[in-house]
Task: structure prediction
Amino acid sequence: MVCGMTSRIGLLLALALALPACQSGREGGAGNAFRADLEKICNAKQLSGADQETGGQATYLLAQWLNTNVTSTEGHAFLVEFAKLGQDKPARRKKLEGAVAQLGLAGCPLVDDWR
Result:
């Protein structure tokens, strides 16, 4: 993990929420759109390339990627609630684990960032 990356996740989520977001992409219903977005959120570090960034731009890359790729209203609402938790690692982990369990996802690498 990039040094300080865990403490930057709150910032990156705030950045992602501050950027204009596309609210389309509700194919298959809201539940399926949220499930797809949660999978994206859980894997955002890898999908965005932020996990490979060594020049201090990981947070920015992740925020941009989330802004572009989380498209459902439910996905954006989840990011807002997640960001409100600040640096409370247990609360963030619990929120992610709860959503993952509720939607039946196999796992969530982002949960590991909050251990």
Observations:
- Helices lie at 5-18, 30-42, 44-48, 58-69, 73-84, 89-103, 109-113.
- The first helix runs from residue 5 to 18.
- DSSP finds seven helices and no strands in the chain.
